[in-house]
Every structure is written in C-alpha cells, then in structure tokens.
Specification:
Shape: globular
Helix content: over 70%
CATH topology of one domain: Receptor-associated Protein
Distance between the termini: 42 Å
Oligomer: single chain
CATH class of one domain: Mainly Alpha
Radius of gyration: 24 Å
Number of helices: 15
CATH superfamily of one domain: Type II secretion system (T2SS), domain F
Order of helices and strands: HHHHHHHHHHHHHHH
Largest sheet: none
Structural class: mainly alpha
Length: 317
Amino acid sequence: MGLLSGRLTLKETANLSFVLGAATKGGLTLGRAFEILAKQTNKPRVRNLLERLAEETRQGGTLEDALRAESKRLSPFFIEVLSAGEMAGRTHEAVSELSVHYESLVKIRRAIIRQLTYPLCLIIVAFVIKPYVMGFVLTHDDTWTYTLKFILSYRILARNIALFWVFCAILNRFGLYRKILDPIKVSLWPMSKVWGKFATAMYCRSLGLLLQSGVGLPAAMERAARVTSNWMLERSFRRRAVLVKQGSTVYEALQSSRFMSRMTKELIAVGEKSGKLEETLIKTSDYLIAEATTPVLVVVTCIELFAIMAVAFMIFS
C-alpha cells in the first residue's frame, strides 16, 4: 500500500473492512453495502472504487472477479480472504477477520509514528530551527530576505529528494520497482528481518483463513502466495504448493524454504499433526508480526538517542 502503488492506504482499508463488517452483520449483501458506502464516503478514489465494485456485482459478476479487477487498488490479502469467504458463505466472518487484522496493523503503525514524533522534532530543532535562529542573529538582512535565503540553502536537498521520487515513479511505471526492490527486502539485512517476517506472516494468516473458508490445501497455498506482495516469495511458495499437490505434507513442502524460519516450520508441523493447521497458522502469523515489529521499535529507539545526542552537540558546540 505504498504511495507509488496507488492502492488504498492501510487506514483506508481498515476503515473499509470495519464498515463492511458492520453492514454484513446487519444482513446486507456486499453488493448492497458497496452501494451505500459509495454514497457516504467523501474520498473520491474510495467512492469510485466502491461504485465499480457495486456495479460489477449488480450486473451479475462474481465478487471475486470484481475484486480481482481492482487489484491495483486493493491489497492481495483483502482480495483473497474476502473472495474466499464469500464463496464459502462466510462473508461476515471474513470481513470481521479483515477488520481485526488491519486494525492491529494500524495500531502498530500508530505506535511507531508516536515514538518517532519526539526524535523527529528534536532533529528539526537541531538542524533547522537552531541554524535559522543563530544565522538570523548574525545577519544584517531583514526577516523576509534572510528567510528566503535560508530556504534556498536547502534547494539542493529538496531537488535530490524530488529526483529520487521521480526515479522511483518511473521504475514503478515500467514495472521495475518491485523487480529491483523485492529481492533486497528479503535478502539484505536488516530489511529481511522485517519485510521477510512480515510477508511470511501475511502468507500464514491468509493460508489459515483460506483453509477455514473451505479452500483446498494446494489451491489455498497458491492463493496465499499472492498475498506476500513479493515476487521472490510468491515464486517460492508457489513451488511449495506444487509439492503438496504431489503428495508432500505442508511441513515437508516448506522444509527447504529459505524464507521461513525453523521455528515457523516447527509450529506448522505441530499444527498439521494435531489437525489444527488453520488455527496454528493464524497464531504463527501473530507471532511473526510481533517479531517483525520488535526490530523496528529498536531502530526507532536508536533514532531517538541519535536525536538527543545531536541536539546536545548543537547546543554545546
């Protein structure tokens, strides 16, 4: 759900899941819920999306086809879980699971942003406000002239940031952004510790929910592979689905995967042997998300310490 992908933001998806859950709990079909929500939302891109979904279902198309047609706007996890739930007659349960999942992700993001706010304010004070005030004291220019000069002094940084975003947009336009970035996300430390575990968590959760919706194991593994949003992980997990089709157990198929930790494999093995694979996969997903969040919070703490030291250096230098 990045800025370059054009998909709904995490908060927008969480809100959509919550409202759909309330609508389906009240007995509305998803098609009718899309129509009502489209009239109520004040965000144009969300309203247009809901109108297209409502129109597709009104014309007799399946929900799955309607959702997949909006794959550039909706996350793979949302599409797979909701379409599987609707096919199994568990629409409300699927929407409720989506709502809980996205709300937990929103809470994690809020916690990270909350912890970043203070160090970022310190960095702004140290590298922007203090130099501005100190320079203003020494200058002979009037306020507006000095302020303009100060802003222009950052023009090189602003230009480089703009060029970087343009470069990323061009790569994304030609489909090269993911081709380049996806291998880095799952191979380069420390990014692999976060992105790899988070993508594996999404795979486990979607696989568990798809199995609960009655999707066959090989088909569920193939569909869950799309949820990773990483072409390397998707290709790897699709290969595991082929092994399961050939008669291997889930544990045996995943044993050779380098993208899944030994602990995760052992948990899946226990769930498979006990006959509670679906529940184990969902619990494993929660465990992996917690593990992926920990190093992020550590980095945020390090940024806070750096900001404090930077302010102290600027004050006493």
